[in-house]
Input
Amino acid sequence: MTMGTATATGRASFMSTSDPTALLRLVQWLSPAFPTGAFAYSHGLEQAVAAGEIVTAEALADWLTDILAHGAGWNDAVLLACGLRGEELVELADLARALAGSAERLRETDEQGAAFARAQAEMTGAAAVSLPLPLAVADAARDLPLPPEQIIAVFLHSFAANLVSAGVRFIPLGQSAGQRVLAGLHTQIAEIAACAAQAGRGDLASSAFRAEIGTMAHETLDVRIFKT
Output
């Protein structure tokens, strides 16, 4: 058997034993159309824009880069990885809530997680279990025949895409500028997902202080478009 034949046979075997709809289901759950209300949350971005800290696509890209690598992006990715490995979701939920740096950040992860669980329950007929968002996703995705790093990457991409959309609406940015920002994050998202897939609770850490302070200040912002 030639190498080309062996490779083709291996790919055919993989396709025959895996679910070809698994990735489509994951993308559906994490798409803007899925009713989690993600469009209503800016993760402190509205406050940063109102304060004049983010007025360009470059500033938005820098802000998102830090959140993904050093803030809630990283922690949510690790929590998702722990959940996908089968760790106790209730314990992880307590940890996720404790890691929320502000009341608005807690509201963001709890409300989106609850909405995600409700939508899943309506689709499947199973009971809805309210969990913080990354763990609600882990609960739904545990049985998907997909590599953990792929699930985590799609989750992080959804998170980043929502914040880019918020930036396009509120900074404001053109649609093309927003898409360039998101495309520029792809390599970082893939790298974070690969690291998070191997990480555990001891790797949880956050140093994106300006984003956390932004969510605190947002609570008293005079005019607000977003919940957080």
User: Anything to note?
Assistant: The chain is about 65% helix and 0% strand.
